[in-house]
Amino acid sequence: MVYTPTVLGTSVHTITASYSGSTVHAASSDTFDVTLKSQVSIAATDATAAEAGPGTGTFTLSRIGDNTVDLTVYFTVTGTGTSGTDYASIGTSATILNGSSSQTVTVTPTDDAVYEGGDETVIMTISSDSNYVIDSGASSATVSIQDDDSAPTLSISDATANEGNSGTTAFTFTVTKTGATALSATVSYATADDTATTGNSDYTGTSGSLTFLAGDGTKTITALVNGDTGFEVTETFFVNLSGAGNATIADSQGLGTITNDDSPPAPTVDVVPVYVTAANQTSVDVSITGAVGITVSGSVTSSGGAGSAALSGTIPGGGTLTLTLDLSTLPDGTLTASATLTDAAANTSAPGSDTATKDTVAPSAPTVNIVPTGIIVANQTAVSITVAGEVGTTVSGSVTSDGGAGSVSLSGTIPGGGTLNLALDLSALPDGTLTASATLADSVGNTSPAGTDTPPPSHLPPSSPSRHRRTVRRSPITPPSSPESRARRQVTRRRRASRSTAERRRQGAPSRR
After folding, report:
1. Largest CB tally within 10 Å, which of 34, 179, 197, 300?
2. Does position 485 have pLDDT exceeding 60, yes or no?
């Protein structure tokens, strides 16, 4: 006999049995009680619970069958969320009351500041019991708790230390986790070259990973820097963070600064020009050569008296700092430019220096004389010109004629006696007024005003007189031998003699008496 009920619960049913065979029964039917169990199921009728707020989620337990009695349904709770920590405890059972076909169970999240790694789950599964049967297609349901907390952040510090003169110096970088988490966080790290390199043995490279447990706040990374006694400018290298798990990286790069503890070498100093004069004293170049990036300090002074011009700046990428200075306020004398170099760690070099001579006083104008004062054919190839002035100065000048183009140069050095004698060939100059002009320049380039001399005009000798026959006319009234005739002849001779004397004087010849 097979009995299939149509209603779950407890009820009385009549069952009719049919018999066959030789056995005779007194009755063809019988009555007995059949008690049926309710069928229970579960569903997530609000499958999302927000931590912020908080916002609740809901499970609903339902039964099919007799609802005239209370029915307690038992369940287990699992999932990534933790009962009593991530959400309020919901127990292990719920009762569907008499007259009701369902009962709800509420999931209330705990609003904390702890990062849980994303959304968490609450899974409710109905447990077996003798008072009900379980709907196999609805025996479990899930509510998700939405986390409103951000992942913790990781940041790395910088590290600075002297390199030392030997061995190694430990550079310690601190990685800090900010923000609470219920999970372990991980991050990888590795060193990287900057101006300090592993190839130059400035430091030893390292790499690895760090693990932060839920309660950990900091971890450290150690890199070893190699010491030496050679001067180097301050150098740097990096420690980089990458590949964080259950965390984000806020500061991914730590800077390691290796502070040099050795003094820099003395700089090379160069003053240009080496002779400072009135003409160039406002723009004198002082060049300082040394290690790139370090600070220059110094001054220019004169042996001639008080005063100085400052030298300051930073050595640029090319290795040479060039300063253009106005030294017009310094007195004449030996100039000394002196400078030192100071690095970022305050290590200071020995001074470097260079000297120059400042002389802004120009020589006086020379005295120039041309001898003879009258220049003729007989003396024009060896004309004496004297230039008198400051001993040791350089003479430069020329002789010109106002009779036309051309010049003859004057050059030399004033000797110990103070006068330079020059014998010049002036035959190439045309007749006219000659002018000899000369200046003096001292050893530093100061130039004097010009000195000049201008003698009377020079002349070539007169052309040969033309010969012609003179015709003498005699007066018929006065005979040649008369006193009147003799007087006229004497006047004529005196006039001719006077003209000859004047001509000889113009040509430099002595007059005849």
Report:
1. 300
2. no
Query: Hey, which residues does 180 pair with through a beta bridge?
Result: 114
Lowest-confidence segment of 41-55, 154-168, 262-276, 484-498 by average pLDDT = 484-498
Alpha carbons within 13 angstroms on the beta-carbon side of residue 448 total 24
Q: Which pLDDT score is estimated for 513?
A: 37
Do you find a cis peptide bond into 273, omega within 30 degrees of 0?
Answer: yes
Q: What is the DSSP string of 113-138?
A: SEE-SS-EEEEEEEPPBTTEEE-GGG
Q: What is 180-202 written as a DSSP string?
A: EESS-EEEEEEEEESSS-TTTTS
Q: Tell me: the pLDDT tens digits for 75-107?
A: 999 999 899 888 999 999 999 999 999 999 999
Whose structure tokens read 């149509």? Answer: 6
Are 303 and 340 within 8 A, CB to CB? no
**Six token digits for residue 173:** 């970088």
Task: Give the pLDDT of residue 19.
Answer: 54
Burial environment of residue 3 by CB neighbours within 10 A (0 to 12, 13 to 18, 19 or more): exposed
494 sits in which H/E element: helix 483-506
Please check whether residue 191 is in contact with residue 205, taking contact to mean a CB–CB distance below 8 angstroms.
Answer: yes
Cα separation, 321 vs 270, whole angstroms: 11
Q: Looking at per-residue confidence, does 255 or 456 come out higher?
A: 255
CA-nearest of 270, 281, 389 to 333 is 281
Parallel/antiparallel/unpaired status of strands 333-342 and 352-358: antiparallel
pLDDT at 466 over 50: no
Q: Cα separation of 61 and 103, whole Å? A: 5
Residue 492, pLDDT score = 53
The sign one gets for the Cα dihedral 210, 213, 214, 218 is: negative
CA 108 to chain centre: 58
Q: In angstroms, rounded to a whole number, what is the distance separating the alpha carbons of residues 393 and 14?
A: 153
Residues 6+ apart with CB under 8 A from 325: 283, 284, 285, 286, 300, 309, 311
Place of tokens 């007195």: 331
C-alpha dihedral over 365, 366, 371, 376, to 10 degrees?
Answer: -50
pTM, whole model, 2 decimals? 0.51
Which conformational region is residue 216 in: left (phi greater than 0), alpha (psi within -120 to 50 degrees), or beta?
beta
| pLDDT confidence bin for 32, thresholds 50/70/90 | low
DSSP state of 307: E
The answer to whether 46 and 57 are in contact (CB under 8 A) is: yes
- Pairing between β-strand 93-96 and β-strand 71-78 as defined by DSSP bridges: antiparallel
